[in-house]
Amino acid sequence: MVxxxxxxxxxxxxxxxxxxxxxxxxxxxxxxxxxxRFGLATSEDEAVRVAQRVGYPVVLKVVSPDIVHKSDxxxxxxxxxxxxxxxxxxxxxxxxxxxxxPGARVVGILVQEMVPQDLEVIVGSxxxxxxxxxIMFGLGGVFVEVLKDVSLRIAPLAEYDAEEMxxxxxxxxxxxxxxxxxxxxxxxxxxxxLKVSRIMESVEEITDIDLNPVMSFPEGKGAKVAxxxxxxxxx
Length: 235
Prior knowledge:
- The chain is an alpha+beta fold and 235 residues long.
- The protein has helices spanning 4-13, 21-30, 44-54, 83-100, 142-145, 159-168, 172-176, 186-202, and strands spanning 38-41, 58-63, 76-80, 108-113, 119-128, 132-139, 150-154, 206-216, 223-225, 228-232.
- It has two domains: 4-113, Dna Ligase, domain 1 (2-Layer Sandwich); 119-232, D-amino Acid Aminotransferase, Chain A, domain 1.
- The protein has eight helices and ten strands.
- β5 and β6 form a beta hairpin.
C-alpha cells in the first residue's frame, strides 16, 4: 500500500502541484478521513468491476492533470445505476474529453460511490506564510459563497477548538436541528476538522486542503467527504 508521503512525492516528481482526485482520496483515507468508496478505471470493463465493488449508484469523473473543470468538458456523470450505464457513460466521457480537451492527458475514469445528499459543509485549510496552517469550517452552498459564513483557527487544534468552530458560524443553529430537520453528527464533523489539522501539521508539502462538500448526516450517522482538492509544493 502506498503511503501518504509517497503519494505527495509522486505528484511532485511528475511536476504537479495538485493531487489527482483518486490520489486525494487515498491520501485522506490513510489519515482516517471518511471518503467515498472509489476506484480508478482505464477501460469500460474495469469501470464495471469497480462500480460493482463500490455499489450502485455511482459517479463517473474523468481524471486528468490537465482538466480543471471536469463538467465543462462533459467529464462528469452522476447517478449511474447499472453496468450498462457505466459502459455507456465511460465511453461518452472519453469521447467528450477527446473532442473538447484534445490535448489533455487522461489517467482514467474515477468511479466513486454517490454520497447521499444531505446538509453540505466545508472543511478546509491553507498554509499561511505568517501563521502557518489555518483551518476553516463552514456550511456549504450560499452560506460560504455569499455570506462568507466560516470559522477559522490556527493549527494545531484541540477537540474544544473544533467544537467551538461549529458553534461560531452564523448558521450554527442548523447543525443543532432546525424547523424539523434533525441535529447533525457533531462528533463526526469535529473528527474531520481535527484530522485536517493533523494532516497540515505532519505533511509540510501540503499547502491547501478543500473538502467541499462534506455531507453531514443526522446525529449518529457520521459525515463523508464527497469531493476533495489537495494542493502540494516542494519544501
